[in-house]
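User: Please predict structures.

Assistant: First:
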Amino acid sequence: MKKISIVVWFVIAACTTSKQISKNNSSLPQNIAVTGKIFASLYQQRAAEYRALCLQAFNIARLRVDENLQMTPGKPKAIITDIDETILDNSAYEVHQTLQGKDYESASWYQWTDMSKADTVPGATAFLKYAASRGITIFYITNRDERERAGTLLNLQKFNLPNADNAHLVLRQGISSKEPRRQAVAATHDVILLLGDNLTDFNSLFDKKAMDEREQNTDNLAAEFGKKFIVIPNPVYGDWESTLYKYSNILTTAQKDSVIKSLLKTY
């Protein structure tokens, strides 16, 4: 019944696209759910503004490290970081898929991560090495699968990133929520910062939540952004996209396009 109700919702969305768009007889190219990502990937790869945003985020993170080190010591200090689009840049994979008219696929993703060819996000390497030089342990909590461990470690070690070893690489084990893994680190360490490109990298309040809830919870936690939560920009994919489709994995590209059109604002 759940799958049927989801499909019905998307049929309705397809028939009732945004009033603003229909009123102006505007149109968008088909397959925007896929082809739209090529422009976002171009921004990630070529825009100096994207680079500046990343450097800004890591500059703030460095300030928070310095501030925290002035506090009374307790448990060993740690930073928890996501990997994809936080430390490693996978835009080459996105471009490869988009140019073939394809979105994410698990098989092609595994092929990509096995190559260990991802570059680093601007500023990530320098920041992590700085934090490690100040005695802070780095934990990499990622939703990559266990089968990706070898390729992931090789990719991290290629850039001599600190704590790039099995003990500090925490992969997904069954559930996608990172909260239990964060809590396990917090049991033995004082977690002073969390780095990520997706709000689920910071708090379970964002796990599988609807669009309105994500926005409200973001406002509720506003004081944490730039303080304990450091967000790296990712315009290509993430839960911000998944929530548009109500986390459904059964939609066709045409259905996704209809949903996107129904949510866009114009005049």
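Second:
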Amino acid sequence: MHEDAPILTANSRARIGSRYARREREAGGLPAVVYGHKTEPVAVSFDGRETVKHINKGERVFRMALDGGQPEYILLKDLQFDHLGTRPVHADFMRVDLNEKVRVKVPVHLIGEARGLSTAGAVMIRPMTELEIECTLATLPEYVEVIVTEMQAGDSIMASQVSMPDAGIRLMSPPDAVVAHIVVQSEEKTGEAVAADGTAAPAQPTVIAEKKAEERAAAKADPKAGDKKK
């Protein structure tokens, strides 16, 4: 599946630190760290435009040609963005081989139009858009599919119910985690209290006017009482 992974040319970075990383980005590079396979982490720089283009297409596995050497497989583990969350500023890659088991998160794609969405006020809730799995690099899927066509209002699909595209893929996310859920939103009355049975409770009468009327009546009956209050 990943034998034809894109090849990324990488150059070793002799100097590390935020100042030098900024210079790499200004020159069009993407600073990164490559680690794994019991070797020391190495600071590298990729072509920023080429690398981000592949990542935006959903690629996670690459073949890295470091300093003109033989390509080796690497797996994208983390991508950091700037403070606006739009521009990649740093990446972490891990060295892997096709038969090595890795733990990664893959996107969840919902397939089909749920029947329950035809119910008035029904909406699809997606608490999880990724699932963590363990598999070999050779069986690593780009995403996992969840068919939601038969879902009705109130139905949920748990992580344990998601079918994996290969028998060797193991679910690592909590099995009871909700992947998709259809809820029905109800309109609430504003300015009215709602009784336990769902009906609007009668509004409570205001007592301010009654209290003032009582005070005036008392003042007429005993004029001195009004003076005492003052």
